[in-house]
Amino acid sequence: MGARLKDVADRAGVSFKTVSNVINNHPNVTEKTRQKVLQAIAELRYRPNVTARSLRHGRSGFLAIALPELRSPYFAVLASEIGAAAKREGLVVLIEETFGERDGERIALEGLASTLIDGIVFSPMATPARDVAARLDATPMVLLGERAHPAGCDHIAVDNVRAAREVTQHLLDIGRQRIAAIGAERGSVTGGLRARGYRQALTAAGIDVDPALTVSKIGYDRAGGASAMAALLDSGTDIDAVFCFNDLIALGALRVLRERGVRVPEDIAVAGFDDIEDGRYSSPTLTTVSPDIPFLAAEAVRLIVRRLADPDAPATDVEVPFTVQVRESTAGG
Amino acid sequence: MGARLKDVADRAGVSFKTVSNVINNHPNVTEKTRQKVLQAIAELRYRPNVTARSLRHGRSGFLAIALPELRSPYFAVLASEIGAAAKREGLVVLIEETFGERDGERIALEGLASTLIDGIVFSPMATPARDVAARLDATPMVLLGERAHPAGCDHIAVDNVRAAREVTQHLLDIGRQRIAAIGAERGSVTGGLRARGYRQALTAAGIDVDPALTVSKIGYDRAGGASAMAALLDSGTDIDAVFCFNDLIALGALRVLRERGVRVPEDIAVAGFDDIEDGRYSSPTLTTVSPDIPFLAAEAVRLIVRRLADPDAPATDVEVPFTVQVRESTAGG
């Protein structure tokens, strides 16, 4: 049904080769000829057959990122950093939001785009490890996070247990003893790991883990943090600090503490996880675990490029460095 | 070089048709056969030829969104809402971050992905209207915002002049007279429109527009808002309100006002634009212009679907409804 290259050449009154030169941005085309060809292309609604071109080169030049939630500033920045790293390798990034649902994640796994993309960076939320391992696609893939991590896959993650232990230790170091934890959701692998680090720090300090101080079954967002903080305050439990399993939860908690007239950090110190920009400008600014996102992004692209060059390269596990950024929410302001 | 469907069939010891059924998720395949085929696919690194499939159906099922900045919560939420609206139409969204640069935007315009996608939603920042009009691609496209808006394109935008006028009017209504404006950057069409609305409201109220109250040449982010607010305070100019041209600028300004001990809204009232979630949880919460993003997203997808059905449909301009959300930063807290 569509116009062919030859139709464009006829319409513009130029050779087949000239049309091809315009499409491929060849410098040896005068602006006048270029405009004539562009006009013919527009009039005929011609679509250059990119697939044929990419198959000639053996690569499409597209890298896909499948992420659960773009509304989460953490994932938005991660996607943006991977885009910047991919650009340095001449790859263009296409982002797909899975909403953390199986249906969305099937696309990453079943290779709907497999002839269109050179690689995929996938942060699975809903897909079990065995299904990731059995995916219907041979496109090079790097897995992010610790939810579904089958053997034999390239994989990048923060050491969540250690990071949670260190930020909890910081709360202990400033003299807090009744430290609550928000975010240990059932079914969340990452939440489970952060809860483990929290418990390890308390136990090492000789403090019993009080189940009344752990709030789960919330969303990993501001609204979830706000309702969890309200529930903790309403319970009447004695609290002098809260470790929130991400910054959005912490920002929701900060808001409720302000509404209730609770001073941060004097009455309750607050720490988060992710180091999103919001927490650097909030009042008070937010103490948090800061993973090295540019490092993560560069490694993700490096592993894809490596596997494109050598499909049989050994599977690699990369650990993302992090620091604990101490700000007003635990250090006075 | 790659394995073919026949190779997979041979390896799995099944028919060509059975492999095709597995790839297309046909229900009439036993789990055992499915696993056998999946294993053969994995071992042979077979990539199903999706392009051939999509050409058979005449559609790829992919909708591209080209946006300047995913780090901006406004664009992240917009992308997510378009994704949700597209899903209801059976379309999968691929997002491309252009960084607001010509190079990134060329991809949207020159149709690199034209055989791969059914439509594109494009928010141009760096590309002049004449280049958008002359794009080398006949894929249905909807333009967002008011930067590059050639005649004959489907187009969706907020009435920025009216929205800026209304939020400035709100600052006048609460008795403010020395209202600063941050964000009227040279070369920013949107910034220019918001500055016009701001001036219209002042003039209608019989207040002279004081150039000392307008700060431009900043980034549209928290850091830009912080430095602009600091510059305004350092200038010694008398100010009792600030209209920031987006919420990120306002959040940066709020942070500086807190650091300087300026009370919001008692000393200086602050208003933003976009209604991102950050401003609903900040301290104080942020008064802002709230555009109807779900409406915008649904209209963008509707216009693409309409143009797929009828390439000659008349170009449509859609105006996005908005409200002014009054919160603590202008109403006491």
Please give the largest β-sheet of chain A.
Answer: 6 strands, parallel
Compute the number of helices of chain A. 14
> Roughly what is the average pLDDT of chain A, rounded to an integer?
85
The oligomerization state is homodimer
Integer tally of domains of chain A: 3
Distinctive features:
HTH_LacI (chains A, B); six-stranded mixed sheet; transcription regulation (chains A, B); alpha/beta; 333 residues; Rossmann fold; six-stranded parallel sheet; 434 Repressor (Amino-terminal Domain); homodimer
Summarize the structure in words.
2 copies of one chain form a homodimer. Chain A is an alpha/beta fold and 333 residues long. Chain A folds into 3 domains: 5-48, 434 Repressor (Amino-terminal Domain); 60-158 and 292-322, Response regulator (Rossmann fold, 3-Layer(aba) Sandwich); 160-290 and 324-331, Response regulator (Rossmann fold, 3-Layer(aba) Sandwich), CATH 3.40.50. The first copy, chain A, is 45% helix and 16% strand. Chain A is built from 14 helices and 12 strands. Chain A has helices spanning 5-12, 16-23, 31-44, 50-57, 73-88, 102-110, 129-133, 160-173, 189-204, 222-234, 247-259, 278-281, 293-309, 328-331; strands at 62-67, 92-97, 119-122, 141-144, 154-158, 179-182, 214-215, 241-244, 269-273, 287-291, 317-320, 322-325. A 6-stranded parallel beta sheet of chain A has the order 2-1-3-4-5-11, with helices on both faces. In chain A, helix 9 (189-204) links the parallel strand 6 and strand 7. In chain A, helix 8 packs across helix 9 and helix 10 (222-234) packs across helix 11. The longest helix of chain A is centred in the C-terminal third of the chain and has 17 residues, at 293-309. Chain A is elongated. Chain A starts with a helix and ends with a helix. In chain A, 51% of the residues are buried.
